[in-house]
Amino acid sequence: MGILVKSKIKFILFEPSHPGNVGAAARAIKTMGFEKLCLINPIEHPHSEARARSSGALDVLLNAEVFDNLHDAIKGCGLIIGTTSRTRRISVPITNIRETAPSIVAEAKQNTVAVIFGPEKSGLINEQVDYCNELVNIPSIGAYKSLNLAMAVQIVAYELRVASEALPAEIRARNLASNEDIELFYNHLNQVLLETGFLDPKNPKQLMRRLRTLFNRAQMDENEINIMRGILASYKIQQ
Q1: What's the pLDDT tens digit per position in 142-180?
Q2: What does 6-56 look like in DSSP terms, one character per residue?
Q3: CA atoms of 69 and 67, how far apart (whole Å)
C-alpha cells in the first residue's frame, strides 16, 4: 500500500466507551498498514487497558490525536465517511464498505479522508452524520447488525488495504473542497436562506439537514464550492 494513501486515511473513534476497544482499534489499523488514529472525548487517554490491548501498536495508540469535538477532528479532510449499522430516514448514501473502498482509496491519493466510528452503544447520531459525504456498513445477518467497535475498524481497514492494492494507477481523485470550506458554505447558505425568508428561523434545522445531505452527497470540489459561494454572494450584491 502506498505511503501517501496510508498517511491520508484517518480512523476516528467518536466517544468510545470501552478503553480496550481503543487499544484493539489501534492494533487493527496498524496490522493493515495504517497509522492515523483520532479519538473524540475518550474516557481516558492513554488508558492502561488500551495500552494492554494495543499489543504491538502502542506507537499508533500514543500518537493518536485527541479532540473534544468532531468538527476539529475532521478539519482539513476532503472526504468524510461515516459507519452505520442501520438505515436512516434522511437519505445520506449508504453503501457496502467493499463497494465503496476503491473510491475512498482513490480520494486518499489526493485528499485526506476521515472514517468515523460511533460510540459502541448508539453509533453515530444525526448531528455527526450531517458532516458525512457517505455512510458505509458491514453486511451481517439480521440478528447481529452491530459489530464490536474494534472488529468493525479491523474489517474497514482490511477492505481499504485490499482496495489500495487493487486500485489502477491511472485513477485520479478530484480535488475536493475541505471541510472548513464546506462549513463556511453551509453557514453562508443558512444566512442567505434566512434573509430571503425561505428558511423558517424558528425551525431551520430540518431543512438545513436535508440541504447538507444533498450537498454532501455531491462531494463538491474547490471550484464547485467557489461557484456556490459566488451565487450566494450575488444575492447580497443585488440588495
Answers
A1: 666 678 999 999 999 999 999 988 765 544 556 788 888
A2: HHHEEEEEES-S-HHHHHHHHHHHHHTT--EEEEES-SSTT-HHHHHHHTT
A3: 6
Q: Which residues are bridge partners to 116 per DSSP?
A: 12, 82
Q: What letters, b where the CB count within 10 A reaches 16 and e where it falls short, cover 109-135?
A: bbbbbbbbbbbbeebbeeebbbbbbbb
Task: Name the residue with cell 485490499.
Answer: 162
Q: How far apart are CA 207 and CA 212, in angstroms?
A: 9
Listed residue (31, 29, 36, 26) closest to 4, CA to CA: 36
What are the φ and ψ backbone dihedral angles of 192, each rounded to 5 degrees? -65, -40
Give 119's contacts (C-beta < 8 A, 6+ positions apart). Answer: 14, 15, 16, 17
CB atoms within 10 A of CB 221: 16
Helix, coil or strand: residue 182: helix
63-110 pLDDT, tens digit per residue, is 999 999 999 999 999 999 999 877 666 667 788 999 999 999 988 988
Q: Is the pLDDT at 237 greater than 70, yes or no?
A: no
d(CA 158, CA 73): 23
